[in-house]
Predict the structure.
Amino acid sequence: MTRQTGLNPTAGTLLGLLAERPMTGWELVDETGVRVGNFWTIQRSQAYRELAQLAANGHVEALPEEARHRRPYRITDAGRAAYLEWLQEMPADESVRVPFLLKVAFMDDMPRERFDELLAAQRRRHAERLTRYEQNWRELHGDDTVRGGPRLATLALGIAYERSTLGWLDELPGFFEQQTRPDVG
């Protein structure tokens, strides 16, 4: 059993990215979006708070400020050690939060036309995300570095999730018509 490092998943993610190269908070948030999409989001304000805490703990150090007041950070030896320990810890159970599912649960309290608008908007969002993930897949598919496989693996989950969600959204109206309810069990 490994000892707990005290790093939360966001801090561990930031250290993992900084283990590759120095980055600004802005770059870290963007790179997280590319790597794990909507499965682990980091807000810019959250990234900067985490970077400040990581710096206070000696896990990262700020480099000289660049253009437009952007400050890159780099991982320290202590940060690399903490990151490698965190990487081996058992992750907590995932918590899936789908705000649209709450609308589905209570859709009988809203006009059907409005629900249909929300459904169409959800379909567009997931179709756009799938297109983006598939584009990232094509761009990364030729990456034969040691990091290429893990990047594709995380992207594969995103693609599968978006395809599954789009299928569910397509079946969703059938759940509300008693005669045509899908058989998913």
